[in-house]
Amino acid sequence: MGDPTRRAVLKRLRGGARSVGEIAEGMEVSRPAVSQHLKILKAARLVTVHADGTRRVYAVDARGIEALRDWLDGFWNETLMAFKEADEREASKEMRTRKSH
Q1: Total-model pTM
Q2: Measuring CA to CA, which residue among 71, 88, 3 is closest to residue 37?
């Protein structure tokens, strides 16, 4: 997800399933490059692929996106907990300072 091209590919797929050609249309990278990005996204389970005649059609894999979101939410929860603990330590310091004056 750190690569802007992969983010652009996923953004295009949010509107529905598309072939490699449809995804690559208008992008600043070549069709083979888009195929390589799709390969990585598929390996990460963020997209699915199925054959439609001679075309390969890609779509967002909602299960993979949900798993990624859950994983990222873990960072947010850790950050919020660290903020809460820091706030509580600061409040405790202020209480001790008030009691000593």
Answers
A1: 0.70
A2: 3
What is the C-alpha separation between 29 and 4, in angstroms, rounded?
Answer: 11
What string of DSSP letters covers 69-93?
A: HHHHHHHHHHHHHHHHHHHHHHHHH
- Main-chain phi, psi angles of 80, to 5 degrees: -65, -40
Phi then psi for residue 2, to 5 deg, are -75, -15
Kind plus residue range of the DSSP H or E element containing 42? helix 31-43
Q: Under a CB-based contact definition with an 8 Å cutoff, are residues 42 and 48 in contact? A: yes
Q: Give the Cα separation of 2 and 60 in Å (integer).
A: 17
d(CA 86, CA 52): 55
- Beta-strand pair 18-19/47-52: unpaired
| Tokens at 21, concatenated | 């050609």
pLDDT for 12-66, tens place per residue? 999 999 999 999 999 999 999 999 999 999 999 999 999 999 999 999 999 998 8
